[in-house]
Amino acid sequence: MQSLFPLFSRRNLSLKHGLLNLVSSKQFYGHDKEDPHAHIRWFNKITSTMRYPNVQNTSIKLMLFPFSIEGAARIWLKKEPPRSILTWEDLVSKFINQFFPPSKMTNLCNEITNFQKRFDESFCEACDRFKDLLRACPHHGFMELHQLDTFYNAINPTDQDSLNAAAGGNFLDKMPRDCLRITESKSKVCNSRNKPVISRVSTNTSSTNITQFPEVVALTDAVKDLLRQNKTPTPAFVKAVKDSCVTCGGQHPYYNCTTTDGIAFKDNIQEYVSAV
């Protein structure tokens, strides 16, 4: 960035670390969706109050601006010929022409002219989107009356009737400043209504409140029944074992078997004695 620094070759300026952090906290990269006009407005705002003894504010801006850009924007600045940027106005002009060419301005002007409220868009959302287009193209050249006419004809009949009612007649017959005031007022009301209402659920909700919902009560009872069934074990059925003779297979103890023919077995079937 040698093209920016010849003006400071004889100046002894010391930039504080905190100041550099502030300037580089919102860097411009040169992406298609970025707005170079917005970056210049932001940069002018944070540098407008900076003062150095015997140094013009525009000279301070020239020194600090390289710290506010990165990526494609920094590459562009490095490629600028030496001493091609000698004033703050030179820098702003080249910066805008590079990242906001005439073709982009033409496209934005066409978007403004052909603006239409979307089907799923609220009034305040459409209003904000229209204002964003105007801010992104500050040199659009449209007068306030033309802007109001474009926006009015872009919204649906219900919103048009609402504006006419607030104006006490034809909305576009009012002075532009009155139309802007009415539009801003309606947009604020719409925005406040669209904000989601989040209520805090108390962990100590009483059973009285729960009983107001039959579905919840039925589901709660069903869960309780399932838990109760799981806690109570199912009784096991034990089948009685009948005596069976190991000798003949009959339904009697072995020691009562008549087929042993005089041989008596003890309880321990592995031992037997002959009857005397």
Automatic annotation (TrEMBL):
Domain Retrotransposon gag: 64-156
GO molecular function: RNA-directed DNA polymerase activity
InterPro entries: Retrotrans_gag_dom
UniProt entry keywords in alphabetical sequence: Nucleotidyltransferase, RNA-directed DNA polymerase, Transferase
Keyword Transferase carried by entry: yes
Protein name, as recorded: Reverse transcriptase domain-containing protein
